[in-house]
Design a protein that fits this description.
The complex is a heterotrimer of chains A (390), B (303) and C (261). Chain A has 390 residues and is of the alpha+beta class. Chain A has 17 helices and 10 strands. In chain A, strands 3, 4, 5, 6, 7, 8, 9 and 10 form an 8-stranded mixed beta sheet that branches. In chain A, 49% of the residues are buried. The chains are: A alpha+beta (390), B mainly alpha (303), C mainly alpha (261). Chains A and B meet through helix 6, helix 10 and helix 17 of A and helix 3 and helix 5 of B.
Chain lengths: 390, 303, 261
Amino acid sequence: MSQNDSFLTGKMTRRDMLKLSAAAGAGAFLAACGAPAAPAKTADELLKSANTIPMATLLAEAKKEGTLTTIALPYDWANLGEIIETYKTKYSMKVNGLNPDAGSSDELEAIRTNKGNKGPTAPDVVDIGIGYTESSKKEGLFSPYKVATWDTISLKDPDGYWYAEYYGVLGFQVSKAQIKNIPADWSDLLKPEYKNQVALAGDVLKSNEAVMAVWAAGMSKTGKADQAAAEEGLKFFAELKKNGNFTPVIATSGTTAKGETPIALTWDYLGLANRDTLKGNPDVAVVVPKTGLIAGPYAGAISAYAPHPFAARLWAEHIMSDEGQLMYLKGYAHPIRYNDLVAKNKVPADLAAKLPPAESYKVAIFPTLENLTASKKYITENWRKVVLGE
Amino acid sequence: MSQTPSVKLGTGDAPLARPPSRKFSWDWLGLAPFFLFAIAFLLLPSASIVINSFKSPEGAFTFQNIIDVVARKDLRSAYQASLSISVITALGGGLFGFLLAYAVTLGGLPKRLRSYMLTFSGVASNFSGVPLAFAFIATIGNTGLITRAIEGISGVDIHQQGFTIYSIWGLSIVYMYFQFPLMVLIMAPALDGLRREWKEACENLGATSWQYWRYVALPILMPSLLGTMILLFGNAFGAYATAYAFAGSFINLVTIVIGGQIQGDVLFNPGLGNALALGMVVIMGLCMTGYSWLQRRAARWTR
Amino acid sequence: MRKSNIWAWIILIVGILYFFVPLVATLDFSLRAEKDVYPSFEAFRTVFSDPEFYKNFSSSLGWSVLTIICSTLLIVPTTYWVHYRLPNWRPAVEFVTLMPFVVPAVVLTFGLIRLYCCDPLPLISSPILLVAGYMVLSFPYMFRAVDTGLRAIDVRTLTEAAQSLGAGWGTVLFRVIFPNLRVAILSGVFLTFAIVIGEFTFASLLNWPAFGPYMEYLGATRAYEPAALALISFLLTWGSTMLIQYIGRGRGVETQVAGTR
């Protein structure tokens, strides 16, 4: 009774003090080891939230999966070969590469057809033209994830469903063996000396690259990346066809070497990579047009039905890391985090020298997503009517 | 006194040898594996074409696709283009293919040539897609072998003059590469079926070679000829890879439009793709019915 | 001794020109792989030293053998049964085998994939779907060849003779019917082989190693090698077909696929 009294009176005896501290200590001790401080997240929870997963956990989970299934990643497209091989060796993962020839729409189709299938034909990650991102997100094909370098990415979906990886600009790949006067701009292409020589690098109805080429031609007239440019672009190609300058052959390195497509409208990084592969046989120059310079970013996303979701997230971390982004640079493509890397002085000088001069890129226009989707729709729907006259 | 077995007497002179048997038999089971396979891997996917033709991009039931197929000008011209190239290559391929088959069977050429021609035809009839398209681009394209040869000889650049291979006629020339061999493969055995006795009988009666062909051989061969030409028609009608590899979607053919609709893009409207395919199935179904009827008439002579 | 017809020679030469000039053009291009060196076999060397070439070609060889075996085992007994017991079913069977002509392949492949991609029957990762697809593509040719062959032999007599000597169905089929149909089956086999080797859509959509997608991929990334590859594949397929014909020649008399008596 006397101990309790001391409590009521506020004065503590030494015994009280000892009891109090013992109780406090016991309480703290119990609190520390009885229940864990915060419950560790289960794998499902980690995947559901779009938050960055700590590298150690991510690596461990990905190694358990062991394989990553990719699609539409040709080895010589923007140095993807080295990027894939580094992923394999650095993280001891296997990579199952599906259909390297697939276009953006084929990749999305692959996700759709393999919804219930966890086998090797289901892609984990996709690499698609930026114009395909919004509709796919609405369709629920993607699973959100924000990589560690998320804040430094200048073009991305705010909820984490996709992120731009790299971009190039649309230029002219010119075969010097056949073309004496290299065209400097879109308007030059209409000149009669280029009869039967101008080709697209894809099918307008299926290829993002071809649609961007049409749009860029229009932008050269209007100066802006909008619907009016799409209309002008179609008119440009209608005129190109009327003059006889347009050849319907789809430009590949084979047709260029054969001489069927001496002027190919393609991404600068593909043209430069071709220049290297062809080794002067024939001699190819890549020219960036003075006006109508459109930047075409490609976006990465993780499939909502991915059989290896952790491996997919590891891949995302890999390509958006400094090391990964610099490997795109080696393939002549501009990594999306280029400015950030330059600011941090991470870009080696010899690598920067391999790109076309930076000034020519200053006038590059980055289209907004709404404009891109609308213009893509307009161009694909009216191509037959306006250009082919049907 | 011998026992005569009691025998049922019918209305005629002869006794009934045995009682009429029940008609039911399990024979149809022998065809079961085939039909099960066909249902699983051929009929069901094809049925899905019919069902999906009536689906809108949102998944609702609609007649819009069927209406579009008939009403839209660009789709009608796609059918027109496909039909014209099919007719051109069926007739041209049929004619020259028949001549080739004749040359190696009855033309008096060395026997070995026949076997080379038939094996080559087997391979050539499947040479299609990118390699075939490229081979012809390399031959009569802007910088093709023949183009350059003509330019070298006559100084005229046919492409500058406006000739272009990237048209229905140009594509027809390419299609012939697999049409001729198909005709050869099917007509060579039919030509073998022309019995020597018939030719000899004609000669005995004083007929000329021309009369033999006109009054005996061609009428017998005509059902096979027409039937195979229908096959060639179908072959060209359904061709996709070669046309696409040749000029992308520049030449407006039904198969190319279908490819664009089904493989998903802004144009992604699989219902329309299926409706277009349904249209193709109807056209081809009519052709195949004609083919079967002709085949049965041809069989008259080989029984 | 038939005298040679001049017209036959003319037709043959025109035919040979038409078929070989494009091949020559392809060859000409493929020999230009090295700058300023003509002819150069660099493109061929690259193809032959690519391990993917061997992997994909042997894969396709495997697929075609599988398809041929399964297709033959399905079509021959069926056609035989139709001829022997159920001639009224012949139009139905023929219609089914002609369907791959009627339904455009683009649509058929997508239909198959959509049907078997998911539950209840997810075959999409199994080789069954690929082989089944190839078998369907081979139906028109196999059926036609076997049907023509069966019409040339007297099925009823052969079967009844064999049965009267005590043969069971297996013996009848494999030791009596098949050998008599050897030439007919072979002609169907040629075409099936060529189809499977060059097939692209199905193999690429189902992601199996095969020659078609390999050719396509090479075409998209390299300049001279695709031309070399096209020629190599043509010659390989032709050579294999001639080999099949040589092996299946039979003893002595060259019989034909048609209904000659």
